[in-house]
Amino acid sequence: MKNRYLVGGPITPLLISELMTLGNDDNGAGAVSIFIGKVRDDEVNGNRIKALEYSAYSEMAEKEADGIVKTVKAAFSDVRKVLLVHSTGIVKAGEASLFIMVTSGHRDHSMRACRHTLEMVKEKLPVWKKEIF
Amino acid sequence: MKNRYLVGGPITPLLISELMTLGNDDNGAGAVSIFIGKVRDDEVNGNRIKALEYSAYSEMAEKEADGIVKTVKAAFSDVRKVLLVHSTGIVKAGEASLFIMVTSGHRDHSMRACRHTLEMVKEKLPVWKKEIF
Amino acid sequence: MAARVIVLYFGAAQKVAGNASEDFMAEDTLSLRRQILERHPGMCRVTFRLALNRNLLKEDSLLKENDIIAILPPFEGG
Amino acid sequence: MAARVIVLYFGAAQKVAGNASEDFMAEDTLSLRRQILERHPGMCRVTFRLALNRNLLKEDSLLKENDIIAILPPFEGG
């Protein structure tokens, strides 16, 4: 299965900009909700996190991500597009590891579907992280 | 009062990209929620909307927008930044007229605060629109 | 005593008034509303609230010289 | 009859196993779990679920030749 939802390394501002352009070619969409998850420079036992290294069960993650997108589209009738990308590998503090974008006709469904997508990512994507100090 | 929240014309992809960079310099923010409101090419009595012309009571809108940002920051303790921009003047179908970005440590407050900001914009910003066909 | 105040029209109210702003002499907002409807009878078809010096009014208020009253039809931002 | 299956380790389980994948001979997932714990006693400290051929398992299942079993500690994406 081709990787459509996983990307190696951080989700760069350039990639975010490209994804936003991609999701933006629809003059019937009045609402765009985006969530970006970023690596925090948290302190753990006196040590500050420099990066997270994400690993994934790629084949299953691609299947699950595809299922999430289909579920969200089916659950929210006003939703028009759902984009979902998660990092694997090393993502430094301040960089993005998750990008979700949902467009819909009106605001309610894009916002609720964006949140629902995020909760499903947390619950269903087989991804793990390791702190790098 | 200097215009900080109102911008003439559409909120261009370039401006969105600049705003996102502006809100992104904070390694303690793990969550970024964005809402973009766009002009839809709706059909009204058989005519398709080409653009909306927004007018605002600018001085009051600036004051109200400032109040919205302060209220949201006070209501959601995990929120770190709130950016809010609304268009005035002509915005074509497919272009953005509203940009909201909220960052927070964790996902819950950024998402809820983003929605709350949007609802307050709808309720409190003295802005009007005229359809252009 | 009546004060000279400035009235700003927005949205549908501006269309009906045919003007962005006008001066009135009024003692309070109740009297001002009455005068606006006399000058622009079409305004009775427009739902609106008032702002006094950029603050939304929740009840009628006395007016003083150079107060700015804005006529605000329902907001349509977003 | 026992089938040769491939076990994939992820996250904390991979750290404990010291391997990304291993072969086992097992008839069902119950027997497979027992064998994994025998081979890697440290695995008893890892909470995990199983996926069979990329699908999360909700209950124990029979196994057939070349099945792929993934050992999945709690997910940490986002």
Sequence-ordered SSE layout with sheet pairings:
The complex is a heterotetramer, with two copies of chain A (133 residues) and two copies of chain C (78 residues).
Chain A: E1 6-8, H1 13-22, E2 31-38, E3 43-44, E4 47-48, E5 51-56, H2 58-75, E6 79-92, E7 96-104, H3 107-124, E8 127-132
Parallel strand pairs in A: 1-6
Antiparallel strand pairs in A: 2-7, 3-4, 5-6, 5-8, 6-7
Helix pairs in contact in A: 2-3
Chain C: E1 3-9, H1 11-17, E2 21-26, H2 29-39, E3 49-52, E4 55-56, E5 68-72
Parallel strand pairs in C: 1-5
Antiparallel strand pairs in C: 1-2, 3-4, 3-5
How does this structure look, described?
The complex is a heterotetramer, with two copies of chain A (133 residues) and two copies of chain C (78 residues). With 133 residues, chain A is an alpha+beta fold. Chain A has one domain (6-132): Molybdopterin biosynthesis MoaE subunit (Aldehyde Oxidoreductase, domain 3). Chain A has helices spanning 13-22, 58-75, 107-124, and strands at residues 6-8, 31-38, 43-44, 47-48, 51-56, 79-92, 96-104, 127-132. In chain A, the strands form two sheets. In chain A, strands 1, 2, 5, 6, 7 and 8 form a six-stranded mixed sheet that branches. The radius of gyration of chain A is 15 Å and the shape is globular. The relative contact order of chain A is 0.29. The mean pLDDT of chain A is 96. Chain C is an alpha+beta fold and 78 residues long. Chain C has one domain: Beta-grasp domain (Ubiquitin-like (UB roll), Roll). In chain C, 23% of the residues lie in helices and 31% in strands. Chain C has two helices and five strands, in the order E-H-E-H-E-E-E. Chain C has helices spanning 11-17, 29-39, and strands at residues 3-9, 21-26, 49-52, 55-56, 68-72. Chain C has a five-stranded mixed sheet with strand order 2-1-5-3-4. In chain C, a hairpin with a 2-residue loop joins strand 3 and strand 4 (55-56). Chain B binds chain C through residues 37, 54-57, 59-60, 63, 86, 97-98, 118, 121-129, and chain C through 8, 10-12, 14, 51, 54-55, 70, 72-73, 75-78. Strand 2 (31-38) of chain A pairs antiparallel with strand 2 (31-38) of chain B.
